[in-house]
Design goal:
With about 350 residues, this protein is of the alpha/beta class. The protein is built from twelve helices and 14 strands. The chain has a domain of about 140 residues: Ribokinase (UDP-N-acetylmuramoyl-L-alanine:D-glutamate ligase, 3-Layer(aba) Sandwich), CATH 3.40.1190.
Length: about 350
């Protein structure tokens, strides 16, 4: 019986039949500071915690994939959590979502990845993130233990490598995916994407999902001297120097997104909505792209689905919007004012 939350599709017609991913698993808190002046080194500042549930990248991305593709599509997490209260709560949540959990390791005497985000009244801010968490213990040997699962999926599998675990571990995951013929996808932070280029990691990536800041880092000196469309074109040119077959999506907030499918560039507008929080929107977009790719949509078609997932995600204060499903996406599509393809409509309509 079909889970009413999932997209409407025939599981037997899927282009890909499962996904194995790695990346950060953890949580965080948001703290609203009093006063807009920059926090001093020895200053004590009042404020309050916000009612926001924060999650890390692997969890966000693969949550949407699992919910939208449903029980027929196995989603295997590869990561580590601590044996603390945070880790145990996340463990229960992930089990309830329906993930394949056999590659989740609980590390004794180590904390789960945690981030404290501080926000000034003007909306700016920063974050403090643990660098000795269980996610930091995801190494090449730990990834290699999942090789048999990757081999089993073979060319019917998708590999996903996201930040918040060491770059070497993600490189190993992508190498295994390439070895066994899987479709390999990745994202990188602004601070590490140039290193990924220098180390040749992109040679094993079929699809990369980045935002406009990360595209600026790729484009290098070109950044800041051009409109967003030209910047995206420059970033794609640079990425193709490492891998001329790579598929690229670039998100740019209210400006929408761009997608290079290997031959041509498509641009799709963002849904006009009042965001409650944009945290996690890029990860939601990545997830929507992966859902579309698994379903056999063209990259441009997947881009439309991803636009809906990301657009709806920002209407929640939490980095995972628990209300995202087929029905809520269909309602959101109806109020978007945008024109979507018949394929997308058929996936969502009752």
């Amino acid at each position: 019986m079909m889970n009413l939350r999932e997209l409407k599709y025939n599981p037997h017609t899927l282009r890909y039949t499962g996904i194995i991913g790695t990346g950060g698993i953890g949580t965080g808190k948001f703290f609203a500071l009093a006063g807009n002046h920059t926090l001093g080194r020895e200053e004590s500042r009042s404020g309050h915690f916000l009612d926001v549930r924060d999650y890390c990248k692997q969890h966000i991305i693969l949550h949407y994939v699992k919910v939208l593709l449903g029980p027929a599509f196995p989603v295997t997490l590869v990561g580590r959590i601590g044996d603390d209260d945070i880790g145990l709560v996340l463990l229960r949540e992930m089990e309830q979502t329906g993930f394949v959990m056999k590659r989740i390791d609980v590390v004794p005497n180590v904390s789960t990845l945690f981030s404290l985000c501080f926000i000034y009244p003007d909306g700016s801010g920063g974050n403090l993130t643990t660098d000795d968490s269980a996610s930091a213990h995801v190494d090449e040997a730990f990834i290699d233990a999942a090789a048999a699962d990757i081999e089993t999926l073979g060319d019917k599998g998708i590999i996903m490598a996201a930040p918040e675990v060491p770059l070497k571990a993600r490189k190993k995951m992508l190498e295994l995916g390439r070895r066994y013929g899987s479709f390999c996808s990745a994202s990188f932070t602004t601070g590490e994407i140039y290193q990924a280029l220098e180390e040749g990691i992109l040679a094993n990536v079929d699809f990369i999902s980045i935002n406009v800041d990360e595209a600026s880092a790729v484009a290098g000196n070109f950044a800041g001297r051009a409109d967003t469309g030209s910047l995206v074109q420059a970033a794609v040119r640079r990425l193709r120097m490492s891998n001329d077959k790579i598929i690229v999506s670039v998100t740019a907030g209210s400006q929408g997104s761009w997608c290079w499918d290997g031959r041509r560039m498509s641009r799709f507008p963002a849904v006009a909505t009042t965001p409650v929080s944009t945290a996690g929107a890029g990860d939601a977009f990545f997830a929507g792209m992966l859902c579309g790719i698994a379903l056999g949509l063209t990259p441009a078609g997947a881009q439309q689905l991803a636009t809906l997932v990301a657009g709806l995600s920002v209407t929640s204060p939490h980095t995972i919007h628990s209300g995202v499903d087929r029905h809520s996406l269909y309602e959101f599509l109806g109020t978007s004012g945008l024109t979507f393809s018949e394929n997308i409509i058929k996936l969502l309509e009752d």
